[in-house]
Amino acid sequence: MDSSQTSPATSTPEKYSTTSVMYARVEDVPPRPPFPTDDNPSGVTVSAISSEKTKILAQDNTLICMLFAKATDVPSRPPFPNATTIQETTVTTVAKTTLDDGDNRAHSSFTALSHTVRLSFHRPSLWPNGSRIRVRFGGGTPELWARVQAYSQWWSAYANITFEFVDSGPSEVRVTFNTNDGSWSLLGTQSLQRAQDQPTMNLNITALTPPDRVRSEILHEFGHVLGAIHEHQSPLAQIPWDRPAVYAHYNALGVTNDWVDTNILNSPFPDSEIDADADTRSIMVYTYPASFTTNGSSVDWTSDLSARDTQRIAAMYPRNQYAVSSFTTNQPTETPMEWQSITFGISPQQPAPPQFAAALSEIDMSNRDDNIRVRTEVTDVQTDRYTVGVGTWGNRVFYNGGVSLLRVPAGDPNFRMGTITDAGPNSYRISFSPPFPLGVLPNVFAAFSGIDSGDNWRGALDIHNANHAYVDIQVSTWGSSNLYNTNVQWIAYPSDLPGVEVGTFTGAGGATGTYQLQNTFYNTPAVFMGFQRFDISSNQNARLRIRATAANPNRIDWAIETWSDSVIYSVVGIFLAISSGG
C-alpha cells in the first residue's frame, strides 16, 4: 500500500511528539533495543502517541508500549484505510456478562525484592465472555499479518474469545505497522469508541525485527486488547520508584515530568476497577532497570505467555462456564430403594467430555443394620450427557439422598479434581497432574462422596501439606466408631484464582448461619458443597441435609438440617463459591 494514500502530504515520515500526551496510562514490558527503520513503511501512520524514542541513548532499555485507557486519549493520527466503512460498536455473539474476578489477596513477591508486580485487568474494559473480535490490518505485509494471526491465537487458545481477521467491513481492532510510532493499543472495549477510520493498535515491527521481539510485541498488545493493563500502574503495584532518576532519564529523551507522571509513575485506575494478580514472568509485566527504583529492583523482559497468563486469561474469559447443579431423590419413605440414577443432558454440547465432581449433600437412611452405607457417582460422561446416581448396597435400607455437582470443562487449566476410592482411616497423598506452576499454592476442597460407617457414625477429612505438586488428605474417625470405607471427592485450584472461594461452616443439627465471602464477586456465585466431618447418633435413623446458598455476591447462607428424632452432634460443611460469569 502506498503511504501517500493515508499519510499527510509530505514525503517525510511523520514523527509524533512525546511531550503532549493525554492518555490515562502507558508503559510497556520488554526492554527492547531500537527497532530497525523500515524503508517501505506499511503506509498507515497510526498509533497513539509516539512512545518510540526520537533519540536512543546509550544503554537505553526502556522502550515503551503506549496503553490508552480511553479512545479520547489517543492523539490525532492519519486515518485508517477504507474509512468509508460503517462504525459498528456491537461486537459480541453472546449476552453481555460481567466477569466475577475477585480481588486477589495473595500477592507473591519477587525474590529479594520488597514489592510485587501483577498481571492485572481493568474490569470495565473487559469484553463480554464469548465475544467475536474482528481485526483488520492497515499496511504491513502478509508475513507480518500471519504472525499477528498466529500469536493472537495464543491468547484465544485459553480465553473464550474469538479473533476473526477480516479484509473489509466493520472491525473492533484495527492494526497498523507504523515504525515512526511506538507500539500501543487501546484497552479492551475502549476500541468500540474509536471511529472505523481510526486505528486502535500500532505494532512497531518489520520483517527485520528479531522474531522474539515480534512475538513479544504482538502478545503484549493483544493482552491489552483483552483488558490487561501494565502491572506497574496497578493501584496495588507499589513499586519503589526513584522519581528523580526516572525523571532524569526521560527528560534526556525530550519528555516532560508531566508525561512521566501520566505514563509511568501514576496509576490511572481506582482499586475497585482493577483485578490484580502476581506474576513476574507475565507478558504484560513492564520492564524497567534497577536505576529506576530506590531498592535496586528491576524486571526483565519476556517474550512468551507465562503459565499464570494462560490461567488468568482462562479465568477472565472462561471457555465454558463452570456449572453447579444438584440431584435429589424423591422416593416415598414407605418404599426404600437401593440405587437411583438419572441421565441429564449437557447444553451446549461440549467439545470434549467435561470433568465432574460429586459430593453427598443429603442422607436419609435407616439405622436398622447399624451402618451408614451411601455413595454417589457420576458415570457415562459424554459431550452431551452424563448420568448421576446415589444409593446404598448390601441390602441396607436407604430412603433418599442428595448430591451436589460441579461440572468443569475438559482441560480446564485451573482445576484439578479426582476421587479417592475405598479409603479407610489413613493418609492419602494426591499428586496433581499436571502440577501447578512452582510457587502457586492451591486451595483444596475435600468432601465425602461415599461412606461405610458402623456403630456411632463418625468421619473426618483433614487437608495437609498442600503445595504446587501434591496434597495430603487424612481420613479418620474417633471413639468407638468404625469407618470401614469412604470415597472422597477432592478439588484443587490456585489460591489466587479470581471468582472462586472455598469456605467451611460448623454446627449441630438445626444450626444455621452466614459466611461473609472474602473474595469480591460481582454477581451472586453458584455454590458447590459437601461435608468433610460428621458425628451422627446411630440410635436413630441418619437424617442429614446441608445447604449452602449465596444470598448475594457477599454472603453465603448455610444450614445443617435434620428431622424427626435424628440426632446430629456436629457437621463440618464445606463449599466452593464459584463465579457464574453472568
Automatic annotation (TrEMBL):
Q: Which domain of life is it from?
A: Eukaryota
Disordered as annotated region, ranges: 1-45
Which biological process terms from the Gene Ontology are attached to this UniProt entry? Answer: cell adhesion
Molecular function terms from GO: carbohydrate binding; metallopeptidase activity
One Pfam family it belongs to: H_lectin
Domain H-type lectin, by residue range, is: 352-402, 428-493, 517-578
State where composition is biased (Polar residues): 1-21
Q: What is this protein called?
A: H-type lectin domain-containing protein
